[in-house]
Design a protein that fits this description.
Length: about 90
Amino acid sequence: SLQTSKMSLKVQTSNITNKNDPKSINSRVFIGNLNTAVVKKSDVETIFSKYGRVVGCSVHKGYAFVQYSNERHARAAVLGENGRLLAGQSL
């Protein structure tokens, strides 16, 4: 069942995390100091989906953005993951 839920997560998550409407900006999380040599987009989605529905995720060299459907989820993710050690680097 884990496999199935991961596949459905893939389908609904877009690469678009740069929309500029206020609601989108407030529900977007910047993830800095990310070891992108090791950590992939699917890993980021899995980690951050526990805080709420991830509607977008974009991974760049050394950082990523996660777009939630609402601001409350974004705030929870920041509180929960800030300073977390992931692949040897503190987020």
